[in-house]
Structures are given as C-alpha cells and as structure tokens.
Amino acid sequence: MQPPTFTNAHILIVDDETRVTSALRRSLAYEGYQVSSASNGETALELARTRRPDVVILDIMLPDINGLEVCRCLHQTQATPAILMLTARDTVADRVRGLEMGADDYLVKPFALEELLARVKALLRRKQPTKVHGELLCFADLELDTATRQARRGQRMIDLSTTEYELLTLFLRNPRVVLTRGLLMERIWGNDFEGSPNVLEVYIGHLRNKLEREGEQRLLQTIRGTGYVLRLPD
C-alpha cells in the first residue's frame, strides 16, 4: 500500500518573526503543501474562516491576540484543524497550557526543520479517515461516526480535536479493555514523543470534560497505576 500523500493539504503559519515564516513557507511549499501565513492572531483567525487549514503552525507569542487564545478560538470553529504550537517557551507549565487549550503537538524554538516537517506529516496522517465509508462506534449512550468524526452523547453533539478523536476512537474500538498508559502513548503520540510527560492525563481530562459536560455518568475510568478503560461505573 502506498503511503498517503498530502499535496492538497493547507498549512497556515502564524508567527510574527519574518525569518521563521519565510523559511517555513519555502520548505512547506517545496514539500507540496498549500501554504498561507499570518503575522498576528486576528489575521490568522480571518484566514482560517475564509479558507479552512488542515494544520496550523502557531506561535504563542504574537503581537495582538496570543497564540493560546487563537488556539481556543480555532477550537470553536466547525472543523477544527490540527494545531502545532511553536514557541520559545520550554517549561513544562507552558507546554501543558498549550495542550490544555487544544494544541495537538508542541515544538520548542529553535527546532530542526526536519522534525517540524515530520510532525506536520504525522498530524495530517492522524486527520485521515480510518475507513472510506466510515463506521459508527457505540458504547452506552456514546456514539462516534468515523466518517464525519462527529461524536454524540445521547442527543448532544460533541466537537473533538484531532488528538481527542484518536483517543476516543481507540477506547471505542476496545470497550471494557484496560488500555495501559504505555500503549496509549505509543498509539497516539508514537515511541519518539518528547513532549510533556503528562500529555495523556491532560487529554483524558479534555475528553472527560466534553463527555460529562451536562452531568452524564463517567465512562472513562482510571485504573490506578495501569491506565484507563471505557466502561460503565461499578
């Protein structure tokens, strides 16, 4: 089977450093991507509204709206893009804040261009539908349509980021099976992930907040010292 190609993918770069933006535009265009760029948050949000990006490379430090707020606003759109945070901040707290706002990955400046390109490709692969016709995954009153990537709890629709979708799909394909922390990290972020060590806990928290927003019973249970399982409460 041939590896997927993403030559029609639209990448939006949001960074006020002209040198960084120019270098990224050249490299991404050379790889065959459609590339747009913005030097501030307001322009980025306007571009995202007029032409939906598949991946946003987003700097935290912007001259108007900071990148965290841009990330939050992007998650309010109908089709949330994958978001790669790009910043000079490298503390654990900063990484966690970015992930909590909905970023799918995090890269600290200065970075190797090859690594950024690899992460963009990984994010695009994760956005691809798992099956051409999709399927409906169900557990209790929770449903996930893999064709539309739309989740539903009862009659309530749930918007998911790329990473949240991948996690929920994995749980729904393995109901009542305890998935270890190591397995979840490897399947979602890969063996070479070097980001925040508590990224899994952050995203489990995201999913629980969305699945239980109206007081619904908890379906994602913690197995202390092991991992997590999708099952009804005891």
Can you describe what's shown?
- The chain is α/β, with parallel strands linked by helices and 234 residues long.
- The protein is built from 8 helices and 12 strands.
- The strands form 3 sheets. It has a 5-stranded parallel sheet with strand order 2-1-3-4-5, sandwiched between helices. A 4-stranded antiparallel sheet has the order 6-7-8-9, with helices on one face. The chain has a 3-stranded antiparallel sheet with strand order 10-12-11.
- A hairpin with a 2-residue loop joins strand 6 and strand 7.
- The longest helix is centred in the middle third of the chain and has 15 residues.
- The N terminus is likely disordered.
Share of β-strand residues: 15-25%
Q: What ranges have pLDDT less than 50 throughout 5 or more consecutive residues?
A: 1-5
Give the overall shape, derived from the CA principal axes.
Answer: globular
In DSSP terms (H or I, runs of 4 or more residues), the helix count works out at 8
The rounded distance between the terminal residues' Cα atoms is 44 Å
Q: What percent of residues adopt helix (DSSP H or I)?
A: 25-40%
Q: How many strands appear in the DSSP assignment?
A: 12
**Biggest sheet, strands in spatial order?**
2-1-3-4-5
Could you tell me the mean pLDDT? 85
* Helix-strand sequence: EHEHEHEHEHEEEEHEHHEE
